[in-house]
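User: tokens in, sequence out, please.
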């Protein structure tokens, strides 16, 4: 831990004590206080009581996607991920997946896109949010903690669908069996008091006033920033951190992520990453 006023340790301590009325998010598994109407980690709505839980939120999205023959692989996979993960048949969401035909085989095989013609159907760059690269001075708090001076950032934009998958894209880079919060720390800094250099770098890049959330991965010395309030800024920070970690991932991991989330190919390309030269995806078929 890199210890900004013990924030992360305090949060984890609170999350380990479940009180009456608290609930676990069916999307990401995070423990939520009773007062929360939606998950503060992935923004999924609080499930209602009883059997209808299976049909709320992302699970309903899965059913809709599976019922739509025109649904593309990224929307179906994203809905399935949000509805409980990679096919645990013992869970209500795994049973729903089985009923719709998505838990009998690995998800990567069930919904992997056709890379033979990926160039023709991948999302367009205009569907992606603007990547704002922030540059800090060596005297900044992050650089003093051993982080590099440059990192990506996003401002949340509800018109960009990729933000709804940010939690699940980032989870692809988290080692199996580990919780995201064991690897990545999130610090909401609405007034820019804790990270004034980050806020100043955002303004220096010509951006409007906004509330920031800093994401940091101490083990890999990677950081990223999301803007847009607490919940939406967290989504943006997760997507920015996924992009930051992608620069350290090997081609096998990146290929897996891009198979699950084709929109990430476009985001990597927009960031200047040559996905074809790196062997992440094959060269698109020319007509």
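Assistant: Sequence out:
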């Amino acid at each position: 831990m890199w210890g900004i006023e013990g924030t992360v340790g305090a949060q984890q301590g609170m999350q380990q004590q479940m009180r009456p009325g608290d609930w676990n998010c069916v999307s990401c598994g995070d423990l939520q206080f009773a007062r929360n109407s939606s998950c503060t980690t992935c923004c999924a709505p609080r499930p209602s009581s009883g059997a209808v839980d299976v049909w709320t939120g992302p699970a309903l999205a899965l059913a809709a996607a599976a019922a739509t023959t025109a649904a593309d692989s990224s929307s179906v996979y994203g809905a399935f991920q949000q509805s409980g993960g990679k096919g645990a048949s013992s869970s209500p969401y795994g049973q729903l997946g089985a009923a719709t035909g998505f838990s009998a085989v690995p998800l990567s095989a069930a919904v992997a896109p056709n890379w033979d013609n990926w160039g023709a159907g991948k999302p367009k760059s205009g569907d992606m949010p603007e990547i704002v690269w922030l540059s800090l001075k060596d005297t900044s708090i992050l650089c003093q903690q051993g982080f590099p001076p440059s990192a990506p950032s996003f401002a949340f934009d509800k018109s960009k669908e990729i933000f709804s998958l940010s939690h699940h894209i980032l989870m692809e880079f988290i080692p199996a069996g580990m919780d995201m919060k064991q690897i990545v720390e999130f610090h909401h800094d609405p007034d820019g008091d804790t990270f004034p250099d980050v806020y100043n770098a955002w303004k220096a890049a010509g951006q409007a006033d906004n509330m920031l959330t800093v994401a940091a991965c101490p083990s890999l010395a990677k950081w990223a920033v999301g803007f847009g309030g607490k919940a939406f800024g967290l989504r943006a920070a997760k997507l920015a951190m996924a992009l930051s970690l992608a620069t350290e991932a090997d081609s096998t991991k990146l290929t897996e992520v891009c198979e699950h989330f084709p929109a990430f190919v476009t985001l990597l390309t927009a960031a200047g990453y040559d996905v074809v030269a790196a062997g992440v995806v094959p060269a698109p078929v020319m007509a």
